[in-house]
Amino acid sequence: MPHPKLLTQGRIGPINTRNRIVLPAMDQNSCDDGAITDLNIAHYEARARGGVGLLILETSAVAWPIGATSLHQPALSDDRFIPGLSRLADSVHRHGSKMVVQICHHGKTAGVDAMQDREQLVPSVPLPDDESDMSAITMDELMKMAGLTGGKRGKQRAATTDDIVWVIEQFADASERVKKAGLDGIEIHAAHGYLISTFLSPHYNVRDDEYGGSVENRARLLVEIITAIRKRCGSDFGIIVRLDGREYVDGGITPELCAEYAVLAETAGADAIHVSASGPNSMGIGFTNGPLPWQPDQYVGLAAVVKMAVSIPVIAVGRILPDAAETHLKNGDCDFVSMGRQLLADPELPAKLLSGTPERVRTCINCYVCVAQNFWDGAPICAINAELGHYEEGPLVPAAVRRRVVVVGGGPGGMEAARVAAVRGHSVTLLEKSPHLGGTARFSSLTTPMNAQFVRYLTTEISRLDVDIRTSTPVTATLLRELNADVVIVATGARRERPDVPGSTLPHVSSGDDLRALLTGDDPTAAARLPIHRRLIISIGRSLGLMSNMDRVRSLSKRWMPIGKR
After folding, report:
1. Which residues are catalytic?
2. What share of the chain is helix, strand, coil (3-state, %, to 5)?
3. 249, 279 in Cβ contact below 8 A?
4. What is the CA angle 61-63-64, rounded to 5?
5. How far apart, in whole angstroms, are the C-alpha atoms of residue 27 and residue 308?
6. Alpha-carbon distance 296 to 365, whole Å?
């Protein structure tokens, strides 16, 4: 479907954007002691070049290293960081995008404070009991997390009035540096369990002074920060506030309370509200409820509640794909749409929509590989976009010598190899012994439907690039000699050993490879353990071509297999 609302110009305070697509702040962890690096610039410039309307720089520490979560996040605490920010601004602006910086004090999650033996600022002590719940953490994960702080556990201290005055000053100073660097504004991070959000949260804030108790008192820190930034930076500087639309803890922030905070932020001078959500920690179900959702459009309803309460623009986030984004904008649920992991997977999404080729979008498969790296202070990687985090290798360029390339295997690895070789100008032939492309990823779409989107993307791209695709073609030495290849790439996939666990050979137990063999008929022994009526059904299904459509197989399999059931 076309996307006229998504691709129309927008405005946030003094910031005019070419479309309604926002890149939310996502940690890249590639700064050098707080300074912007060439890797940072390459990452954001790729998304600006791809047509994003507004980019938000990853969470940046206003008082770095104090209150910081990483030594590799952007720092805003000194004028020496301005030149790097200026280079970043220039790289984004030259492509027509606008950019703001997400500014933050990390409070109870300030790992650098723990590492350097500083107390972490919080509104109240002690922290609620749920903060110490490690039940969902494996020992390997626990050791990696401990390594971030040198094995030290953070100690918290309730912020004094003097501390609060200092925090407000740090936010104002940081914002002034952002403006001097030529960037378009800031986003105050008042969500996700960081310092400001814990003041907003009734779950964490049990103070009895002017910064606790009533709604207005809990919002006082946020309001005073907005006021200080507006006074320091003027009306030609954008201020966005990120809030939790819901906090997944007992007695936490509700959608209605978030709307009250949004009204107070607007009154104080905010230009837009960015609505997210969070759990008490980054463990277990709290993590996938917030701030990294697993359901499509997961926070749009929260944004809609805020939208009804304020007159400034509202930004929605939460696994929103282009067609859904268009619908939500038309329905008035929000004014802008953030696409985080989707723009990691395909930085050229806006340009592809604008050119009328949405089928060329590399859709995020929601595997969480990218965000998992953040827990260990690592740079994100992407399961379907190999370029993410590897910008030092540069963009794909035409090869100096055109070669005849033969790729053996039509799974994702082989298809991607064929795509890259074709993009570089080589003559490419792809050989696949089965009737279908996609390999294991095609079959895995039975339980993970988004994998089918990736297979469709690769199929579209290699077809567009005129790759010679030959399915139902077993590879022989004779065939390879006939093709006269200069280069042969073998991408026949991994071999998986059957798990050696008690019961794995029982008649009713099937591995993924067993199920694949059932569908394809490649291994007659795979069906031998099934009751005769099921063997007959599968055989008829194969003969009628029913087993070649994974959507149909997924629907049918739910009748007699536990796929998708809980």
Report:
1. 194
2. 40, 15, 45
3. yes
4. 60
5. 31
6. 11
Distance CA 141, CA 153 (A): 15
- Residue 57 belongs to what H/E stretch? strand 54-61
Backbone angles phi, psi at 101, to 5 degrees: -115, 130
What's the rounded Cα separation, in Å, for the pair 472 and 358? 29
Specify the pLDDT at position 548. Answer: 63
Q: Do 299 and 281 contact (CB within 8 A), yes or no?
A: no
- HSE-CB at 54 with a 13 A cutoff on CA atoms is 35
Taking only the tens place, the pLDDT of each residue in 221-271 is 999 999 999 999 999 999 999 999 999 988 999 999 999 999 999 999 999
Measured distance CA(491)–CA(486) in Å, rounded: 16
Tell me the residue type at 429: T
Per DSSP (E only), the strands in 330-399 are: 336-338
Local structure of residue 130 (DSSP, 8 states): G
pTM: 0.91
- HSE toward the beta carbon, residue 498, CA cutoff 13 A: 13
For the chain, domains (ranges, CATH) are 10-392 (3.20.20.70), 398-490 (3.40.50.720), 512-557 (no CATH)
DSSP at 309: T
Q: In angstroms, rounded to a whole number, what is the distance separating the alpha carbons of residues 310 and 263?
A: 6
Q: Which amino acid is at 261?
A: Y
Helix (H) or strand (E) holding 469: strand 468-470
Cα torsion 29, 32, 35, 39: sign: negative
Distance of CA 473 to the CA centre of its chain: 38
- At residue 284, the pLDDT reads 43
Listed as ranges, residues in the chain with pLDDT below 70 are 1, 130-138, 141-142, 144-147, 280-290, 518-531, 533-566
